[in-house]
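Colleagues,

Please find the record for the three-part complex below.
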Amino acid sequence: MKYYSYFPGCSAEAAASPLGLSVLPVAKELDMDLAELEDWNCCGSTPFGSVDKLAAACMAARNLALAEKRGFDLVTPCSNCFVVLHSANTQLKELPRLREQVDKALAVAKLKYSGGVRVRHLAEVLYTDITPEVIGAKVTKPLKGLKVAPYYGCQLVRPNGFDDPEFPHSLDELVASLGADAVSWELKARCCGSSLVMSEPDVALELINKLLRNAQENGAQCLVTPCPLCHINLDVYQSQVNSKFKTKYNLPVLFLTQLIGVALGIPADALALSRNVVSPMRVLAPYL
Amino acid sequence: MAETMVKSPAIEVSFIDEVCSIPGGEAIRSCIQCGMCTGSCPTASRWDYPPRKAIAMVRAGLRKELLSSNSMWFCASCYTCTVRCPRDIKPADIMHALEVLAIRDGLSTKRSRTPVMYKCFVDSAKGNGRVYELGMMLKFFLRTNPFAALKMAPVGLGLFLHKRLPLKPNRIKGVGELKAILNEAKALGGAK
Amino acid sequence: MEPKIGVYICHCGTNIAGTVDVEAVTEFARQLPFVTVARNYTYMCSDPGQDLIRQDIKELGLNRIVVAACSPLMHERTYRRVCQESGLNPYLFEMANIREHCSWVTEDREAATEKAKALVSAAVRRVYYQEPLETKEVPVNPNTLVVGGGIAGIQAALEIAGAKHKVYLVEREPSIGGHMSQLDKTFPTLDCSACILTPKMSDVGSHPYIELMSYSEVAEVSGYVGNFKAKIKKKARYVDVDKCTGCGECTNACPVEVPNEFDLGLGQRKAIYRPFPQAVPNVFAIDKRGYPPCRVACPAGVNAQGYVALISQGKFKEALEVLRRTMPFAGVCGRVCTHPCESECERGKVDEPVSIRSLKRFMADYELSVGREKATPIERTKEDKVAVIGSGPAGLGCAYDLIREGYPVTVFEAAPQGGGLLRWGIPEYRLPKKVLDNEISYVEELGVEIKTNTPVKNLEEIFNQGYQAIFLATGAGISQKMGIPREDAKGVIHALDFLKQAGLGIKVDLGERVAVIGGGNAAVDAARVAKRLGAKEVSIVYRRSRAEMPAVSTEVDEAEREGVKLHILAAPVRVLAKDDRVTAIQCIRMELGEPDASGRRRPVPIEGSEFDMDVDSVIMAIGQGVDKAMLPQELEYTGGGTLVVDPVTLQTNIEGVFAGGDVVSGPADVIAAVAAGKEVAISIDRYLRGVDLKEGRPTPIKRVKEVSKEGVEAKARQAMPRLDPEKRGGFAEVELGFDEKAAIDEAKRCLNCGVCSECMECIKACEPEAINQEMEDEYEEIEVGNIIIATGYDAFDPSPLYHYGYGRLDNVITSLEFERMINASGPTAGEVLLKDGSHPRTVGIIHCVGSRDEKYHEYCSQVCCMYSMKFGHLIREHVPGAQVTEFYIDLRCVGKAFEEFYNRVLDEGTIFVRGRPGEVTDLAESPEEEGKLIIIGEDTLIGRQRRIPVDMVVLSTALEPRADAEEVARLFSISRSADGFFLEKHPKLDPVATMSDGIFVVGCCQSPKDIPHSVAQASAAAARALAMISAGSIEIEAATAVVDEELCSGCKICSDLCPFHAISFDEEKKVSRINDALCKGCGVCVAACPSGAITGRHFTVDELMAEIEGALV
């Protein structure tokens, strides 16, 4: 058993609930103890850092302080939480003035953070700690013949990534360990527009369209991503892309944990497959 | 963004110091203006002043013109510029620093809805300790363009039907504690 | 004499005085013991400053001097000279560094002043103890070593040789010329690189004062300035430099093609090659990298790469010659070998192994189809007769090798025809008898006598007939029994008996239903023969899984295709018979348990799972044993019933009697038997010549280390044409063999792992007999006075910049690749071509790839702007109307006529876009972009992002330090700067010397630079070396170590540690002694000496202790 503190992030409880729901049964199968950080708060996300740097650092620091009490690596399945918590963690080490201010603010709530937490992304933990070999050995329903486009998005691999920031390979290896064919496609680590999909939908929908087209042209039957924001854009907004660009995409987008779960033989219900907007049941039917 | 001669009253020479003092903005002086950031940016075509030019404007002291532009608000934080920058100056972080200054001084543009969205997000996260997506979305559309909300209705419905849009906020136990921390941060006067 | 010390404190302008209170330090110095005078002055190193010291020595009678100023590296020599000129021994002088150690490292005036005082105090106390020392002069060896034969090395060598001093020029490639020889035109004058370089190269080649050591590397360097020793490794070139005329006939004969590194892999070269036509020396070299895996894997060591390479060139006859150098059985092994070579074939890592066995068969088929000429008998040069008993593959393999050594060999065979199990054990459809007959005839034609119908039981008789050595190769011809009830019933026949009878055409009545027991080749052969003899239902019963069947898997496939049924995981328990005639066989089902000793999972019977198979006959094929009855009694046997032999020599317990093949190993495959025969041939030859049988055996094999698979495109192996299953009623051969085209295509799949295939065709082609395939690396020691290092640069590999698409997108190439492409003698003969063979209409050139980038190289590579512009000009010259766009950050045209060249290409129409592009992609977003490469970047001068579609992208890649720069630096004891290039002594005032006296760095190994700068540096270094040669001698450090012979205990610890080999041992007096000329005063021996017998002059304990005390005051 490997032990971690777990930070689900706000999306995993709401718009990306298939992620939050599928993480736990998969972790159990893989002998990971993911203990949810008690009373965690929003990491601050990009908006906080763009509005008020100190407040943003405090949002992250409260979580880091709570995690430090428990003493394990802080693991999040959300790429945005990962970047925000990881960067805050680094800044608190490198910028003494910021650290001093944050210390003062945290002291109000009798909290203290001394820089002892390592922030990690769940995908990195699966790849590095659990390893594709071990996951592969636990596969009971090999996804033979399934063509999966691994979509890394941005913040899993940039700027703090554990993998090549331009052409990563870790998800490809994880996908292959499940018996599926990892589709090689040029845009696998390119931007989906992130939260601009709300404020500037034209920009984001254009980017999403490029991604879906490139994945489809390379023969993908579905995409897999670890990131909730990417998932929302590619899955939930796929119909918007279709109506705006007169396209006919019907590409299911799975969370990494959902795909692993299927291969490990976890029932569809437990993986919340029915919560995916573009239904994955058609392509997954042979393996369920 | 008129292309006129830049005269002294428009120039605020301390602008670059100001950017340097914000966490993430420190490295701006090292820029060699090669253009790698703009060349790598997936949204650069929308920016009034794309990233390299924005950095040049910081150096030129064109503070008001830059901070009231739509530029940095199109940054989707993909960090492609950051991993490719040959001088390791982290342009995305510099853009975030510019956003902080724009909001602080009330200069943020109305030609992008991103500043409003960010503020709605921050309010929501502050109020509950976690983001309440439905509430935040409604507030954002009301503040910007209620009609755009109609266009987005199918998306919201899709989320709702797939049990991905909880109707109630998820409030943390320590929300009071969190507010106290943030109030203290405010009292400290922001990051220096 | 009372010490009288003068202390002089330098202001160094404001460098020191700006921070250190020099007046206070001077006042402090005046108070120190024995200080007669203390002064300060603005520039102590200036003439008036020096005069101050001179005057004081004269007038005040000073006998010790301290100067507190800059680093001793700068001016120690200056002040020592001042002392010397004033009649004072220069070692009575000490320098305190109050600039680098005080004023330059702090802005705190008080602290700097305090530290300056401490340093002055330390120097004053130290100088009190200093003693006069005498410097020595040593002669300078007038020879010079130049390392690297690029333009810089060539220039340096020519300059020195021009002054009639000997130069050794060492170049690791087969030719000198370096990167410059790869370039087309040179900027800004556009003169042809080869045209200006080749005259210099040929001057080097023919110069009486230059000894060119090409294809060589410096292995070791020792000694010191004026007196270096270097060990040069002359790599085996396999071509005699003196005999080779450079005619090139060898390359025409060579069948091996590999990517040509001189053309960056864009073109091909042969295994025997010279990098380019103007090479100096104009001598070929063979690229030999070791044995290919196929050859290593073959028990008999057959040179598969050799014959495969020749087949690929259509040289089928020559290919067969290669095989026959090892063994005579192309047709036999080409059909029935278990081909371990194919399992090891590197091609298998790309797609599938090369069909080596089928290619071997093809050579034999080809020879038979064109008609084989009778072999010429081999002359018997030896008298000792050898007897081989048994004419199977082991016996004939041995006889073949011995006859070629000139021994008279007789083979005794009990059967009416030769061939052993090859004849009696393998059915006709798999190995036609005529193929076997042909190969046996070949062996006979060479002179081997085969006496058939001649069983041998008594070895004594053979010896009595005058044979000097005997090889027992009688095989394992007896079928083993299973030991189950009723195995003796009628209708149970053993596979070997069955196959032999069938082979002889004797009718065997099998009935309709036949069960074959076993999973080896004999079982499969028997089943397929039974089918051919008319049995309706033939089943193979095997106790393990199908994957574990020892039979060749394609044979099993064919058997199934012919209708043979497999019953795997089943074993017979008893034969059921009625009236002594088989009616059925009872079997039990098995499952796989734990792995056994062979690593295979042991089959375990499943209780109660017995079942009956109704059959008319049973063929037992469960193994063969040695027939002891056929062998003399005095031989020793193992528990398994095979002969005991020495594992290396294969000699039996009887002297002069050897054994090998199945009689030793038990039933094995053909190639193992041949291998055993060959091994015995070596033993017998040694035995008869009276040479030790074991020494040097087995010979170590150098397997090739790495095999590049770069750019190899997957291509399936040629399918073996087979007879239709419906037409397989008789015994016609099932596998039909390759035709010529299929054979050539298949052979071309070979990756040529060892590069040189040792086919020896070059030897035949070389009239001057310059080729020596047995050549080995040689070492030569040379002595030189100076060393000039000119090892050049590596071109940056842009693959890590994924976003520029190099290696991923077609038509993204590097600048050096472009140089080769545009060169008239390059792989495209000077045509600028896209992958599809067309000319590009638009080309984008991206500057600064790998340069000016903290992720790769922070420095500017200095030449890229200019060569990129040169490309702009050349592209338009070669492809009229082509549009060239250059993407730059800053244009650096800072040389003579560089700006003018920029203006020229601007006028010609090259477009310049300022901005480092973000990426290159082939994902089109508009019809104009379809099929193009799109450069996405910011045009920073208009401040907008642009997408620029082009046909070709050239990446102007950085110049970087050689991959082995660190090893070279260590070899010559020189340093590297932060950028990895070799560090010069002083960046401005001594840019070609290094911190190691007598060692110079020139050209791009020091930093990126263009040709004129490399040439200028080379000339400068040559001048420096010549100055030393001309002076004839140099002064060496007087601060050496000295041994107090009274105290020396003779332990020799010092001599082992001395890095300069300066310490020798006087065997008579039993003391160590230090050679002043070799000692560098490093102090290692001083610290190591356990009895404190060694003193470092000028670094005595008294001096050092006083210095420390002074600093602490």
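Chain B touches chain C at residues 32-41, 44-45, 49-50, 52-53, 80, 84, 86-88 (CB under 8 Å).

Comments are welcome before we finalize the supplementary table.
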